[in-house]
Request: fold
Amino acid sequence: MLPPGVEVVTGQTVINEATSQISSALGFFSTALLVFAFIALFVGGFTILNTFSIIVGQRTRELALLRIVGASRRQVFRSVLLEAAIVGLISSLIGIGLGLLAAVGLEALLSGLGITLPSGSLVFEARTVVVGLLVGVGVTVVSAISPARRAVRIAPVSAVSEQQSEVEISLRRRFTWGAIITAAGVIFLAIGLTKPAIQLVGLGAFGIFVGVARLAPAVARPMASVIGRPLARLGTSGKLGRENSMRSPRRTAQTASALMVGLALVSAIAVFGASLSASATSAVNNAISADMIITTGTNSQGGFSNLVRPTAAAVPGVSATSTVYQDQFEVQQSVQNLTSVSTENLSQTVILNMTSGSSAALSEGQLLIDSSTADTKHWTVGQVLPVKFALTGPTTMRVGGIYQANQLIGHYLVGNGFFLQHFQNELPIAVLLKTDGSSATEQAVKHALAGYPNLKIQTRAEFQQSQRAQVNQLLTIVYALLALAVIIALIGIVNTLILSVFERTHEIGLLRAVGMIRRQIGGMILSEFGAVIGIVVGTGLGIALVSSLKSQGLTSLVVPGWSLIIFLALAAVLGAVAAIWPALRAAKLDVLAAIAAE
Reply:
């Protein structure tokens, strides 16, 4: 009974479409959470690997005795992996419970930052338990494979005589594989930057993380010598701590590796965040030459009245105006956002950095595309594309020019004349004003538009600040999630140092026997922590990440030197704090029991 062009659907269809739109809008957030979950597992994997490596080292005699009484290498290997699986299962169950608390805390964090999510109860599905157990046990077992392989290489003779040749062979293999993995990571990173391809950059970064972690013992000795030099001047404790770090570079690297990865990630995000914030300002400078920008308010949806432009244009001091519309169209069977702008005052309000073609093509009803779309789709000026509009149906458009990528303009741009022929009853999403720059004109514009409460009227500087504020809000969430990875790294430091204290019970007892007091023992353990590699690796990866996204509008590269220095100082403080508990345990060891320990 309805006229042609009207679609009739059920209420459930509308609900399904709204649900799909919400899921699509939150897709980036789900992806971000999965990325940080992977980062947390990656950092935790280092802690698990270090723990089982130390445990295997402490149980050399036990494992050798098992070999003497008839245990095969396969049985020893399986026993270590079975222990890892049991530990992983128990830890995963605890982790799932803590994850529920973290979800509540994350929701509170988002609310505190002004980010409102669709209302609803906390969702806890059965697959969450299944996936959590599989991933937790899987990561633990995989991380324990290398220590388990080391365990099966322990000779039975080690039950009566400690041998160091196995360690030396292991170190040589570690350095060889570390160099190979690092080189492969650098190659993938270089290819990813050349393409550019963010996936290859991520794969290269992963390879560099793993490779550098394996190479860390090679540089731990000289770095411990340099970093520990000021501590050696503080007395006997600092001197022994420095010498212990130099004497056991592998143990020093194991202690610092988890925090190194966490610090590298924080440094990379710091470079990315500073560059993203600078690019937000650059995007405004490279896209808009107008002095005032009128958009919808924070809580407003859609556009605003078409009477806003003529009302603002009538204010004395306003010399040029441009109206901006946006809606969806279909190009080559893909739904995309299409932006339009007035062509009569284009040069006074909008900046189009053309790489080919001309902006004059807008007045001729042709399509302009950004450089990232042109590179991805391999489109050129003059190419005719099949497009489709909901109102007018299928047609074709000629590519009239290509402009530098800019997030504010979008990927597809046409003139208002062409746009309004294919969309009905459209409302503008922005009005750009060129004024004389005086505060009197600014106040006059705001007074003239006082009858439109859904408007947000900003000067160019205010608009830039709002763009930076949106970026900073997102970065706050990123840093909060990265803090979880750093906490995991600090737990790794505590765990590794405690195991190190158990491993060196005999050594600590002898030091106490020759006159070292408890305070000196505690100071020695505190002095053995140190890691700087993460800052260097993270900064380099941050620069690579920004470079790989240059075609996506991330045009400014900023290295926040002071922020990196603060991160380094904070890491040193946190590392020392994490070492307090192991230091106290070492200081409380009974002298006679420690000397008798083997």
In short: Residues 203-286+463-598 form one domain. The first strand starts at residue 292 and ends at 296. The chain has three domains: 22-163, 203-286+463-598, 301-453.
